[in-house]
Amino acid sequence: MKQAIKWVMKSEEDTKKFGLALAKQLKSGSIVALIGDLGTGKTTLTKAIAEGLGVKEMITSPTFSIVHEYHDGRLPLYHFDVYRIGEIEEMYELGYEEYFYGEGICIVEWADLIWELMPEESVTIRIEYGESENERIYHVENCNIKEE
Ligand SMILES: Nc1ncnc2c1ncn2[C@@H]1O[C@H](COP(=O)(O)OP(=O)(O)OP(=O)(O)O)[C@@H](O)[C@H]1O
Ligand SMILES: [Mg+2]
User: Fold this and answer.
1) 56-109 per-position pLDDT tens digit
2) What is the 3-state secondary structure (H, E, C) of 14-72?
3) What is the pLDDT of residues 26-54, one digit of tens each?
4) In this predicted structure, what is the pLDDT of residue 62?
5) Domain at 5-141: CATH architecture
6) pLDDT value, residue 148
7) What residues does each domain of the chain span?
8) How far is the CA of 19 from the centre of ligand 2 (A)?
9) DSSP state of 111
10) Measuring CA to CA, how many Å separate 25 from each of 19, 38, 109, 146?
């Protein structure tokens, strides 16, 4: 089994700092898999990563379109939310390979639903609720975040 590093987010502010730090580590072609129940903060983390990449456009949940593209940051950002995907075929129909194996950065909410398509080297963040309302526990694979 792969080594997962545990991080504790005590507040939304911690999540924001984490996202900004993660953005610095991401390179052309990086893929971030976000896994966690409703409301664990996958979109909140995505917003922080986007901010770190210099995206000025507003990040909204791509509820009806599976993927939203942002082209005003350091690298193109492709934000997937596959929560409502019916079958894996839909990923082929939207041409996911162009995104996953392209020059930009992909962030995938609910990546567990399309796990067979996720490259093994993806930065994987499993998010759980913590003990208090605003606490979240992260289990991070394939990335060494350095906090400042
Ligand atoms: N430490 C934290 N990190 C992230 N979000 C937090 C934290 N503490 C509280 N929150 C709140 O939790 C909520 C997370 O909502 P968000 O839409 O980001 O979750 P999500 O995982 O994307 O949900 P969905 O599965 O519906 O897409 C927000 O209301 C946010 O303010
Ligand atoms: Mg979300």
Assistant:
1) 999 987 667 899 999 999 999 999 999 999 999 999 999 999 999 999 999 999
2) HHHHHHHHHHHHCCCCCEEEEEECCCCCHHHHHHHHHHHCCCCCCCCCCCCCCEEEECC
3) 999 999 999 999 999 999 999 999 999 99
4) 67
5) 3-Layer(aba) Sandwich (3.40)
6) 55
7) 5-141
8) 15
9) G
10) 10, 26, 19, 9
Residues in the 5 Å CB sphere of ion ligand 2: 42-43, 61, 109
Q: Does ligand 1 lie within 6 Å of residue 41's CB atom?
A: yes
Q: Are 94 and 67 in contact (CB under 8 A)?
A: yes
Residue 12 Cβ inside 6 Å of ligand 1? The answer reads yes
- Beta sheet of 105-109, edge-to-edge order: 5-9, 136-141, 123-129, 31-36, 105-109, 77-81, 67-70
Instruction: Give the mutation target among 12, 59, 83 for probing the ligand 1 site: most ligand atoms within 8 A of CB.
Output: 12
Minimum CA distance residue for ligand 1 atom 5: 41
